[in-house]
User: What shape does this take?
Amino acid sequence: MLVIRILRLLRIFRILKLAEYMQEAQMLMTSLANSSRKILVFLYAVLTLVIVSGSLMYAVESNEAGFTSI
Assistant: This one.
């Protein structure tokens, strides 16, 4: 019974230890929200680059598949 109480007490201390990082987490979320437009523009540019380079690679490669069956 005493062991269970000690474990519960340790769990509470662990939760209290996480509370010191909450301000930093809030700051991180605020900065991500403030730069969300820049992040979306970057992701759009990467997606466009991947699609264009994939299409070019498909066009450059030969049409011959190399395999006749599975």
